[in-house]
C-alpha cells in the first residue's frame, strides 16, 4: 500500500512538472539583448527605505532596453523653463463675517481643508469655499469657528 501511494505521488509530481514546463515555455520570451550588451536598466536595483524589505533583484526577463531621452542625447541643449500660469484671484465681496462649515477635499493627491465663508452684508448665495491661507484674518476666524464647533459637539 505504501508503494502504491508513493508511486501515485511521484506520478502527480511528474505531471505537475510537465504541465508547468509547458505553460512556462508557451509564454516565456528570451530577452532581446545578449550577455555583454550594455543595459542601463540594472537587474539589481537600489530601493528606497520604505521598500528596503523587498528583494532588490528582478528576473532578467523583466528588464527592458534603455532608450535615451532628448536631454541625455543633447546635454548642452537648453530647455526654456515654462512660466507658471497666472491665475487671477477674485476679490472677496467684502469683509468676512464668519466661517460656517469645513470640509476636506483631495487636490493633486493631498488632503486640503476648505472653509465655507460668509461675508458681511451678503446673502448666502455669495458664500465661498476658501483655503485656510486665503481667508483674511484667518487665525482669528478659524479660532472662533473651532471653538464654536467644539462647543456644539460638547452640547450634543
Automatic annotation (TrEMBL):
<dbReference type="InterPro" id="IPR016197">
    <property type="entry name" value="Chromo-like_dom_sf"/>
</dbReference>
<feature type="region of interest" description="Disordered">
    <location>
        <begin position="71"/>
        <end position="93"/>
    </location>
</feature>
<protein>
    <recommendedName>
        <fullName>Chromo domain-containing protein</fullName>
    </recommendedName>
</protein>
Amino acid at each position: 500500500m505504501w508503494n502504491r501511494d508513493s508511486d501515485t505521488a511521484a506520478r502527480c509530481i511528474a505531471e505537475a512538472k510537465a504541465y508547468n514546463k509547458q505553460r512556462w515555455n508557451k509564454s516565456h520570451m528570451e530577452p532581446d539583448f545578449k550577455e555583454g550588451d550594455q543595459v542601463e536598466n540594472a537587474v539589481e536595483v537600489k530601493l528606497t527605505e520604505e521598500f528596503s524589505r523587498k528583494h532588490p533583484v528582478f528576473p532578467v526577463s523583466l528588464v527592458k532596453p534603455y532608450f535615451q531621452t532628448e536631454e541625455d542625447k543633447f546635454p548642452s541643449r537648453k530647455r526654456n523653463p515654462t512660466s507658471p500660469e497666472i491665475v487671477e484671484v477674485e476679490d472677496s465681496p467684502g469683509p468676512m463675517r464668519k466661517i460656517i462649515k469645513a470640509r476636506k477635499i483631495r487636490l493633486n493627491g493631498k488632503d486640503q481643508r476648505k472653509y465655507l465663508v460668509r461675508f458681511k452684508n451678503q446673502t448666502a448665495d455669495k458664500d465661498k469655499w476658501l483655503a485656510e491661507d486665503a481667508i483674511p484674518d484667518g487665525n482669528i476666524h478659524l479660532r472662533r469657528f473651532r471653538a464654536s464647533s467644539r462647543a456644539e459637539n460638547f452640547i450634543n
